[in-house]
Predict the 3D structure of the following.
Amino acid sequence: MIPFGIASFRLAGFILWPFGRTTVERPDAGAASCVGNVIWLVFAGWWLALAHLITSIPLFLSIIGIPFGWANLKMIPVSLTPLGREIVSTDQEWGSW
């Protein structure tokens, strides 16, 4: 249960401030993270990804919401398979295309 809790807190931190950060797969993630991702996908991942997709649609309807819509779409792969990933900073400035 501890890896799922750590992944949940990692998702929460990424959702709180997704700008200027991205996720990469960890090369040292083993078979346990693969099995954990399958369990996560079945019980939580698919509906989290669907919720991010559905909530991004109304965000794209306003000028102010467009960056948040992109941020929602950026969270879909992380919400599907959070184990074996880490969040890293990008060298892009916040708000740059």
Notes: The chain is about 60% helix and 10% strand. Helices lie at 2-16, 31-59, 66-74, 76-80.
